[in-house]
Amino acid sequence: MKSPRLIQFDGDSLNTLRISLLAVAPEEGCALLIGNQEKASFLTEDSLLRIRLIWPCCNVWKPGIFNISNPLNEQEQDFEANNSRQNRFAIDPREQLLAQRWARNRDLQVLGSAHSHPKGEGDLSTVDKSWAFTSGLIVIVDQCGDANAWWIENNQHFLPLEVAKGNHE
User: Which of 42, 71, 124, 145 is deepest in the core (most CB within 10 A)?
Assistant: First the structure.
């Protein structure tokens, strides 16, 4: 997928994202973002990610899930004690497969994921950056409901994206 410059949430999808992610506070909420990629306008080659639907997911994080090692080289005792659903998230791979199948049947695709930082800012944390395993879209909603977005390239290059106000089709 070509690196986008802009994301747009259609209809009430940004509000749906905010509500679903912040509803589980103080735990981090998570969701998949379903839509498609388009040209931003006929005057430019820039692309736009259009978010058409939010697929809320359960945060299934627990220490040791998916055999993920300690990415920050914290002492193992500190890593286990300081990590919970209040500062980590994981989406069940089965949920991801269901969302992909659902989207594909509607000529859409899973464009990326979103999660909340219910006690903090909407910036990428060190863990968010270190666990970026694939290229794609990531959206973070902060404790006030503000959304920030990045396109991840080559698993470690993070390009900030403009979040456009949705249209109300």
Answer: 124
CA 111 to chain centre: 9
> What pTM was computed for the model?
0.86
In the block, tokens 């379903």 appear at 34
Could you write out the three-class secondary structure of the chain? CCCCCEEEECCCHHHHHHHHHHCCCCCCCEEEEEEEEEECCCCCCCEEEEEEEEEEECECCCCCHHHCCCCCCCCHHHHHHCCCCCCCCCECHHHHHHHHHHHHCCCCEEEEEEEEECCCCCCCCHHHHHCCCCCEEEEEEECCCCEEEEEEECCCEEEEEEEECCCCC
Amino acid, single-letter form, for residue 79:
F
Q: How far apart, in whole angstroms, are the C-alpha atoms of residue 34 and residue 123?
A: 22
Rounded Cα distance between 51 and 27, Å, is 24
Give tens-digit pLDDT for 5-31. 899 999 999 999 999 999 999 999 999
